[in-house]
Hints:
This protein has seven helices and 18 strands. The protein has 302 residues and is α+β, with helices and mostly antiparallel strands.
Amino acid sequence: MHVEVKENFDVTNLTSFKIGGKVGKVYYPTSVDEFDEVIFSEKDVKVFGNLSNTLVSSDGYDGAIILTSNMDYLWLEENNHFFAAAGYKGPKLAQFAKAAGYSGFEFMIGFPGSLGGNICMNASAHGQCISDKVVSVTCYSKDRGVFELSKDEMEFGYRSSICQREDIFVIGAEFELEEKDADLIQKQMDENLAFRKAHQPSLAIPNCGSVFRNPENNSAGKLLDEIGAKDFSVGGAKVWENHANFIVNENKNASSLDVLELMYKMYSGVKEKYGIELKPEVKYLGNKNKREVELCRILNIK
Ligand SMILES: Cc1cc2nc3c(=O)[nH]c(=O)nc-3n(C[C@H](O)[C@H](O)[C@H](O)COP(=O)(O)OP(=O)(O)OC[C@H]3O[C@@H](n4cnc5c(N)ncnc54)[C@H](O)[C@@H]3O)c2cc1C
């Protein structure tokens, strides 16, 4: 078997932040067998989807990663049950479900996550959440190989799942959706896109979505706004002028350290004024200098 691999590959342009560097090996398996082959040929492999929630070090990463983008198959099982593989992109999934007349994925229309990333992060928006529709997840771990986890066993929570706590990778998932008129689904998707256009930076302005999770019964964006974060910037990274929980890399010249320093400024401002410690939504991949190690520890970025 021959799994596609790119060596010393600069992933900057693959990230939605347009920040990154060279990664030692980037594997693109197309099947579970190829996935398995990579896991057993490398000592330590990390798995990513579309890198839309990941800050990649400007100094790159010396190790190996899998990108699931070539595992992008999907099928409609009996009745209203779908199976989609880890690399299938959320917006395509939303379009597929609409064309088949099924509701539940309208929220995925406006952000670029892969199915695996969406499951790992338990992505949500516009009152819908990916775990709401999950029946079971086909998982992979080095010890167990391929196995199924039920929705309960996935331990979904707000922006969390078991995949963030254990070395369990998503291969695909089965969903149960509800039948609905395709025009109504389209209407909902149009409303979702209009909301995003009004409140969030588009992908044309490099960003990675919300930077911090919302604290319980509170809004990270509101707290950040109240400390004046919309005026904050560090190097090429700045807080978006229309929503304080987004960091943008407008001129594509921000480094990973700029982003971490800016996150620290945002985090410290909220902690000082309200005593609330914001928790990051964004993940980190790659080498770290001494300051980046310190910032990731304080900010609790994994
Ligand atoms: C413009 C914009 C808008 C956004 N809006 C939203 C929003 O409304 N709601 C929301 O929830 N998110 C939003 N996001 C954030 C992001 O798209 C989601 O977190 C998405 O789920 C990440 O998917 P990904 O494939 O890009 O994950 P990656 O960035 O590739 O990975 C994120 C995490 O998931 C893990 N992971 C990825 N694939 C797998 C797998 N197969 N198995 C196990 N773990 C895996 C990675 O190891 C990493 O820890 C937005 C991002 C952008 C850029």
